[in-house]
From TrEMBL:
Keywords: Aminotransferase, Pyridoxal phosphate, Transferase
Similarity comment: family membership: Belongs to the class-I pyridoxal-phosphate-dependent aminotransferase family.
SUPFAM superfamilies, A to Z: PLP-dependent transferases
GO cellular component, as recorded: cytoplasm
Cofactor: pyridoxal 5'-phosphate
Name this polypeptide is given: Aminotransferase class I/II-fold pyridoxal phosphate-dependent enzyme
Length: 378
């Protein structure tokens, strides 16, 4: 046939979202907040629109925003990216990831992916003729099998995609793990796409280590981030990526023809908003309270879990409740019990992983409370 992606259907987030609406279910499926963002941010967008920032932004992104991003990265991670050559503003992290893949992957190139994985990586690889090479993370602890990773590297391996904090498991990669990766990649020229959209959402004693902090990874990585996650505006679709200039040069060759530039007023507003670092540094404690609230409310349920280390997703194991497969159970939860979540085999194309569902806790406490009440009754 003519399809370039014959095995791809409609994403799980769209199909579950529609089913949840049809059945008026409490929706803890797709990752987005159901509370409003800071009204000051809306005022900032309104203000810059009236100031006339309504035409094309620079192709690479508003320069002052790129400077602010560079300062933020340097302050948090000690790494210097030059705003002119090494930072590009993108239509969310999705476009950053897609563009990095499109810029470097040619037919036959292999790309290593750690599974379960967020769903946008593999189609982007396949569209460019690349071959996704899945490495399964540990089934309960999401540990990395370093030997498997090492053995997966061939002369055709062009890229590796890493996501920390990790969606859907909530795993946060430690410095030690990233240094292991650095050592394994050292003899290769594999490029890394580092999906760090949940960089500010980490809990307990966990710390987000950006790949930009690890020298042997920073010099081969695209660091992809999203303001949607950080400022509770997933619908605005603004993000950015940072990479050494020789990688960014190729990235921009694709970016300029795929989108040219990103929404101008939003970029201007984000630049002002980002000046107050407490707005993103406070995100951890904000979401830790939500995670703890949700988990406390699940105390009397039959679900089992380890509290997530980061992201706004919590995996719940339901094997004490039913032995149905996760897709069937997730469907029944919507239709019969009025609660929506994501079955995690959707992140696993290559194998089923029954018994585990993903719940988004970026929701009002009243929503989490109602959800927990239903879940405790199962
Ligand atoms: N990567 C991961 C791991 C995500 O969970 C998401 C979105 N929720 C994205 C990328 C996409 O981010 P954006 O909405 O900024 O495109
Ligand atoms: N990243 C969000 C999630 O994991 C979904 C974004 C999307 O729908 N593509 O729920």
């Amino acid at each position: 046939g003519r399809s370039k992606l014959p095995n791809v259907g409609t994403t799980i987030f769209t199909t579950v979202g529609i089913l949840a609406k049809q059945h008026r279910a409490i929706d803890l499926s797709q990752g987005f907040p159901n509370f409003e963002a800071d009204p000051r941010l809306f005022e900032l967008v309104n203000k810059v629109m009236h100031e006339g920032y309504n035409q094309y932004a620079p192709m690479q992104g508003d320069y002052s925003l790129r400077e602010t991003i560079a300062n933020k990265i340097e302050k948090l991670h000690g790494t210097v990216y030059h705003p002119e050559m090494e930072i590009t503003v993108t239509v969310g992290a999705t476009q950053a990831i897609f563009t990095a893949i499109a810029a470097f992957i040619s037919p036959g190139d292999e790309v290593i992916i750690l599974k379960p994985a967020y769903d946008c990586y593999e189609p982007a690889i396949e569209l460019n003729g690349g071959i996704p090479v899945p490495i399964q993370m540990g089934l309960n602890d999401y540990a990395i099998d370093w030997d498997a990773l090492k053995n997966a590297i061939t002369p055709k391996t062009k890229m590796l995609v890493l996501n920390t904090p990790h969606n859907p498991s909530g795993k946060v990669f430690s410095k030690n793990e990233l240094q292991k990766l650095e050592t394994i990649l050292e003899p290769t020229d594999i490029i890394v796409v580092s999906d760090e959209v949940y960089e500010h959402i980490v809990f307990d004693e966990n710390e987000h280590i950006s790949l930009s902090q690890i020298e042997g990874l920073a010099n081969r990585s695209f660091i992809c981030a999203s303001f949607g996650k950080t400022f509770h505006v997933t619908g605005w679709k603004v993000g950015y990526c940072a990479a050494p200039s020789e990688l960014m040069k190729e990235f921009r060759k694709v970016h300029q023809f795929a989108v040219f530039c990103v929404d101008h007023p939003t970029q201007k507003a984000m630049n002002t908003y980002l000046q107050d670092e407490s707005l993103y540094l406070g995100l951890k404690s904000f979401y830790q309270k939500k995670r703890d609230f949700f988990l406390n409310a699940l105390n009397s349920s039959r679900f089992t879990y380890s509290p997530c280390e980061g992201t706004y997703f919590q995996l719940l194991n339901y094997s004490q409740i039913t032995n149905e497969n996760d897709e069937a159970f997730a469907r029944r939860l919507i239709i019969e019990f009025g609660i929506a979540c994501i079955p995690i085999s959707s992140f696993n194309l290559n194998r089923r992983q029954d018994g585990v569902l993903r719940f988004c806790f970026a929701k009002k406490n009243e929503t989490l409370e109602k959800a927990a009440e239903i879940l405790c009754g199962l």
